[in-house]
Each structure stands twice: as C-alpha cells, then as structure tokens.
Amino acid sequence: MTELQDSYAISEWHNIHIVGIGGAGMSAIARVLHGQGIHVQGSDRRASPWVSALRDEGIPVMVEHAAKNVENADLILASSAVPDDNVELVAARRRGVLVMRRSEFLPILTRDYEVIAVAGAHGKTTVSGMLALTLMDEGLDPTFIVGGVLADLGTNAHAGTSPYFVIEADEYRDTFLSLKPNVAVVTNVEYDHPDYFPSPRFVRLSFGNFVDNIQPGGLLVACNDDPIAHAVAASYHANGGRLVLYGRNPGVGLAWRATDVHPNTIGGVSFVALREDRIPVGEIALRIPGEYNVLNALAVLAVALELDVEFEIARGALERFSGTARRFEVLGEVATGSHVGVTVIDDYAHHPTQIRGVLAAARQRYPGRRIIAAWEPHTFSRIKALHADFMTAFAGADQVVLLPIYAAREVDDGTLTAELLAAQIQHPAVSAASSLEVAVELLASIVQPGDVVMMMGAGDEYVVGKRLLEVLMKI
Questions:
Q1: What are the angstrom distances between the C-alpha of 351 and each of 309, 345, 379, 398, 461?
Q2: In 10 A of CB 66, how many CB atoms?
Q3: Are 290 and 278 in contact (CB under 8 A)?
Q4: Is the pTM here over 0.85, yes or no?
Q5: Is residue 64 part of a domain?
Q6: Do 238 and 344 have their domain in common?
Q7: Does residue 108 form part of some domain?
Q8: Going by fewer Cβ within 10 Å, which terminus of the chain is more open, N or C?
Q9: Residues 402, 304 share a domain
Q10: What pLDDT was estimated at residue 104?
C-alpha cells in the first residue's frame, strides 16, 4: 500500500472511525487527530479508563462493535488486535470504505514531520516520554505518541505546532518499519514476541531494517552497552550512517556516558553525565528509580543535543519527569490499620530482563523493606519461549505470587498454568492464585507492615493491585 499511502492526505477524510480505540496505541492516534481538528470517533468491546478519558476530551466512543457505528465513516482505522471478520470492518468494506491498520496509517500521520522514533525491547515508553517533556520545556511543542500516560502531562499523545513528532516505535509485527525517522533511538534489542518472531535472529533483522529506514542525513542514537543494539548501530555506521552512542561502560566513540550512579534522597537515581566519555557536564537527579533509567536519560541527552536543546533545559526536564502509567507507578500506600506502610506498585514488566530490573529498582528505592513480586505471566508463547529465563528472574524478591496467565491474543491449550510455573520457579517462597479474586485474598493474607508489593505484567495485574489496597484499608 506504500504507493497509495503517498497519495493520501489526512485532510481528505471527514469522519475517521477507530476500531479498538481503547488501546494505548489507537487512543493516542485518536488524540492527535482530534487535536489537529479532524473528526474522529471509535468503538471498543468494553468500557475502560481509556474510553472514559477519550469521551471526556470530546471524542465519541461506542462500547460495542456494531455495523451501525461505521455508517458515516469515510476511513476505518483498526487496531492489530481486531480480527478481519470484525463486524465493523466487514460493514465498512461492504460499503467500499477504506480500512487501514495502524502500521499503514502511521506513514500518513507522520509524513509532514521531523520524526524522532524511539525503539527497543525495553525503555521506549520512558525515553519517548522524557523526550516529549524535554522538547516541551524547550518550547518546541512536539506532536507525540507514547505508549503510556505521562504523569506530568496526563496524556499519552498531543498534537503540537512544531515540525517534531516524537513516537514510540513498536517492533511487534514490524509496525516500526512503516516509519521513516529523521532520528531513531535504539535502547536495546532482545528476543520477545515469539508469536511473531520465530527466533532471535528475526528480531535482530527487524531492528536492522528499522535503522535502514532512517532518512538520508538522519541520525541513529544507540546504547553501546547492549551488544545487539551495538551490532545494529555498527552495521548502520559502516554503511555511512551518522551515529551517536551512549552507555555506562567506557567505549570507543562514546558520546554520552554516566558515572557515579547512586540512589538519591527523592526516591530516584542520580548520576554524572559525561560528554565524549570523559568530560563532566553535570549531575542529574532523576525522580524515578532504576539504573536502567540512567541509560534512558542518556538517550534523551543525545537527542536533545542534536536538536540544539541546552543541557540545563534537558536536565530540568529529566529531573522533573515523574514517569508514565504502569511503569513503576505507585498505586497507593495503606496508611491506617494493621498494615501501615504497605506500598503497592504497578509495572509493565512482562519480560525476564524487565522483571529483574524492576525488582532491583524496588530494592534501591525501598532498602530494608520486604519485596513481594506479584507476577501475571503474559501470553503462553512468551512464557514457553523464555521459560528458563523467567524461572530465574525473581531472585530480587522475598516472596513471589503468580496470577493466572494472561492469554491476550492467544488460546489456552491447557499445557501451561500458573500453578505449573510456580512449581518450577527457582525461589524458596512461591505460590499461585487460581483467579484474580483469589490473588487479592492471597496477597492480603501475606503482606506485613512495611511490605512493598510489586504488581508486574502487561494485562490486568493493576486491577489486583488496586483491589488489594481497598481490602487492606478495611482491615
């Protein structure tokens, strides 16, 4: 459809309908279109906070999928989670209305912008959010699409007035290959999404194709500490591409490095930023914990310098950045009753590397407190493909509770259960819950004053965390 995409202009559509508008990706597109003055509406199969927020912003959302929803639409955008036989897609095609998937529409949405695309197995939501805030502080008013709600701005998307478009570039189903960035960031490359990528080699190839899509004269910003990201960057540079490297470890050609990394008194992590691997520029005190966020901040500094943003502006934005929803998000703390000081945190960690990093961040922010990891395994294919790595990922927790496996787009064949995983995890204190309701009861019986409960997953684990707080408040 590439040739056809080049002939389309958003202004020619008067009523865009989004099927699956309640997801992070499609709700962000809706917000950008709405902000650009385009009439946009949508539907989703269930009510959610995303749906309520869109309605509050003046975007009509129907909580059902029905043919009548698309009667006045002249373009249909469909989430990748929506099957081809969806009643709205069928009705639209019957009427001859154009139907596009997100990956097909992104080139049209971003065509007239200087695109800054942030890719990586982990960290892309945080880096995208940090970048958006940094450019706003510089007065550049970027358009942006981020994979989570920014705590500082209360949204995951914005239609700006400047030429810049910051976008989180998703590798799943090669969605990011539809982008032609002027600046691309690669935070890391790790095997994931085994339901699409048959082996790690295909993930590496996909990221290689992504950086090959950088516009002539553009820039690749990559993490030197990650071996595959480094290899992708080296190949790009060998073919004449412009490259900026960052990392914590010393390295040849490193543009940005962090040293003196340590926890700070505001619950985050501080570090000294070095230019050209050796020149101290200044200390940055992040509000968010986790040494992985030091690398995320370095990526932002590299892009900011490319756009002529002064270091002091970038440092100010990074230091006030409060995170994004579902990334080490403190859901609450019980302050009364027998469970004084029980803190419940939600994080999107659904990969072994993320789990290890988040548990280490919890230790860093809450030294001396007991850490309970409540993990909702996400998709059967991921658990099977990364099984050995998952089984050793919980050493940083004092106790582990498994929630039922979140199937998402997959079908349960009955060969893998939370109970089975609990018996295989290499940890002395593991238990499994048969349902989300049972998980709330189990966690409520386990927690002690001062505990930190880390809810981890990419599904409904946050619901358990919120319900746990409600239960503890009544004890």
A1: 34, 17, 11, 19, 15
A2: 12
A3: no
A4: yes
A5: yes
A6: no
A7: no
A8: C
A9: no
A10: 93
- Find tokens 């966020």 and name the residue: 293
Query: Residue 287 belongs to a domain with what CATH number?
Result: 3.40.1190.10
Number of domains composing the chain: 3
17 beta partners: 41, 76
The CA angle 416-418-419, to the nearest 5 degrees, is 95
Q: How many helices and strands in the chain, by DSSP H and E? A: 16, 21
424 is written with which tokens?
């295989």
Q: Which pairs from 328-336 meet CB under 8 Å and 24+ separation?
A: 328/288, 328/289, 328/290, 328/358, 328/361, 329/151, 329/462, 331/455, 331/462, 331/465, 331/466, 331/469, 332/466, 332/469, 334/469, 334/472, 334/473, 336/473
Q: Which residue, among 328, 215, 249, has the nearest Cα to 229 in the 3D structure?
A: 249
Residue 308 lies in a domain: yes
CA distances from 285 to 96, 176, 267, 294, 355 (A): 55, 32, 10, 10, 23
Question: Which tens digit of pLDDT belongs to each residue from 166-208?
Answer: 999 999 889 999 999 999 999 999 999 998 899 999 999 999 9
Q: What token pair was written down for 109?
A: 């949405």
At 278, list the tokens: 């050796």
Spatial contact of 341 and 450, defined as CB atoms under 8 Å apart: yes
* 251 and 218 assigned to the same domain: yes
Within 8 A by CB and 6+ apart from 407, the residues are 379, 380
- CA dist 284 → 177, 250, 292, 313, 360 (Å): 34, 19, 14, 12, 20
Query: Encoding tokens for residue 289?
Result: 């914990």
Place of tokens 């408040």: 473
Crossing angle of the two packed helices 311-320 and 292-306, in degrees rounded to 10 = 140
What secondary structure does DSSP assign to 11-34, as a single string? GG-S-EEEETTTSHHHHHHHHHHH
From the list 299, 9, 8, 309, the residue with the least C-alpha distance to 162 is 309
CATH at residue 17: 3.40.50.720
Question: Residues 83, 124: one domain?
Answer: no
59 and 205 part of one domain: no
- The tokens describing 156, both together, are 């995951």
Asked whether 443 and 313 are in contact (CB, 8 A), the reply is no
* Domain with 253 in it: 113-320
Token pair for 60: 């009509």
In this predicted model, what pLDDT tens digit does every residue of 365-406 receive, in sequence order?
Answer: 999 999 999 999 999 999 999 999 999 999 999 999 999 999
- Give the DSSP H or E segment for 453: strand 452-456
**3-class DSSP state of 376:** coil
